[in-house]
Design brief:
single chain
Amino acid sequence: MSKQEKKDQTQELIKETAKNLFFVQGKFNATTQEIADEAGVNRTLINYYFRSRDNLIQIIFDEAHRVEKKKSEIIMNSDLPFKEKIAEFIDGSLSTSLQYPYLETYIVSQINKGSCHKKDVEEAELKKLYRDIEKEMQLGNIVKMAPVQFLLNMVSLLVFPSAVRPLFLENLMISDKEFDQIITERKEIILNMLFTK
């Protein structure tokens, strides 16, 4: 293995370890030392490859943001019928939630700190989406409401269970495996709540 390949491999290991700590384990305040220990590397390597913990966090956030943006593009840019687009978005969101249970919570926590925020949607795209939602309402496929309410309902049904995962695990006395199964079953439940037919 070349020196560059070893460097790239170590850099990727640190990033994946940080993602695991933040998005899988929900340890948003993990220190540089904790990341290094989990990755099995010397702490100075994090500063060597990423200059600082904050820079590593920004890189991790940018990757998380790309995942979120990719999901949004399903709705914004797909030529599929509306309900199928929503179904694909739900499917992608639930899959991401299973892979990274604390991703949404992490993104919201970073936005609440006033850091790392990027707008996902352009105004013209949003207006088109609202027109598509209104059209579905006129066809009787969705209960009539302000289009923004439809989006709030959809996102709430998708994000809330993962955002409060620790509370559900403890208060509903279920295991991680049981919770993942519940998340897997949500696609049809959400579609049935959002659409009348």
